[in-house]
Amino acid sequence: MATRAQHFVCQNCGAASARWSGRCDACGEWNTLAEEGSAAPARSSRKGRVFAIEPLKGATHEAPRVACGIAEFDRVTGGGLVRGSVLLLGGDPGIGKSTLLLEVAAAFARGRHRAVYISGEEAVAQVRLRAERLSLSDAVVELAAETSVEDIVATLSHGPTPGLLVIDSIQTMWTEKVEAAPGTVTQVRGAAGELIRFAKRTGAAVILVGHVTKDGQIAGPRVVEHMVDAVLSFEGEGSHQFRILRAIKNRFGPTDEIGVFEMTGAGLQEVVNPSELFLSERDLGSPGTAVFAGIEGTRPLLVEIQALVAPTTLGTPRRAVVGWDPNRLSMVLAVLEAHCAVRLSGHDVYLNVAGGLRIQEPAADVAAAAALVSSLARAPLPADAVYFGEVSLSGAVRPVAQTAPRLKEAQKLGFARAIVPEAARTEAPEGFALTTIGTLTNLVADIARDGTPALRRVGRQDA
Ligand code: TYD
Ligand code: MG
After folding, report:
1. What is the mean predicted confidence (pLDDT) over 189-207?
2. Position 190 pLDDT exceeds 70
3. I need a labelling partner for 404 at 20 to 30 A (CA). Which of 17, 50, 229, 331 fits?
């Protein structure tokens, strides 16, 4: 009889190795290797089955979707949940994943679809309490506190197929098919595999909740990300009430849409006009803030970028950034130094995107540069202006996509002018003033000239 092969699996990244070692070779984490049972199935004498091979061209049909009616959620999923698809929702503990999914399940139930919510973390009574707080007690959501995947599948195979099955969370689930402790990578992968098979077999849409590790990966089972059809992340700063739902991967829709929610005493509320919210606490008239006209997916979004540039007391000046890519900040600072004679090497630099939003667009370069120069020169920027444009290493300001919707949104919110790349010249809506800049040097010169409060008023009249 053959001896059972044992192997070691990294609990952080899922890499397997034949020998134990203190440090995972794949991800470099210490003390994460744990012994687990054989992953290789027993050798079978079964011959392969012959299957038909199809041409690329043929009859197709649009994936059937069910929209739940929560517009911000439906937008991020690409118009609703696809039947038989599996979605992974990641996020920090306490960010509101359970709250969001209970609201989604209730919305499904209201739309006369069978919605089942399985909690592996909380007792039924706790979920009921939350439902009461959200005023959802009357929704016909089926509820259970269970962790065995076999039991869940057996129970749900009776009766009508659920339209939606929520599993909160995948880390608490375990399957008998795998010999490993619950929470280990092998077990999470095994449990996810079983639930994915259930979804494909029955056509139920399944949402798995996944916890996020300290470095932002969906905990341990990154492998699960490859198995599911869509990965969403639920983000937000603990101290802000805004929550952002973002698609990271989606086999059935776009990945650049975001949904904006506000956490209130009565649950998550949809935010219909996020720009208004992100600009609601603007500090008018102080130097170091610029409004960026951005695009998230198909939707324009205005946010305030705040910068503080102060003489450093340290040998190496500090660069701290919240909500933006630190590498892009370094690049903008280098361009300002090299091409615009803005000396920042003796200054600490702090950059913050207001409201807890995370910006990924390079189009924010010009707005960040404007905020930085404004802070350094102690010159407030005009309160009625928005900024956007990408900066290249040569200091040139490059055009960005979707100029018209950015400008329209700015006008809708009462802004009167925009500082934009030259290519945007023709796209101004009526009654809206454009200042085009070819290089970052133009921008710095404009701020240095018009920036002081007395002169700024004159500048506004002739614009
Ligand atoms: P929860 O959905 O349990 O987070 P997760 O499942 O991601 O761990 O939400 C937890 C937080 O949300 C908790 O700190 C309290 C807050 N909250 C509200 O502010 N209002 C509400 O109506 C609810 C239900 C929760
Ligand atoms: Mg939870």
Report:
1. 94
2. yes
3. 331
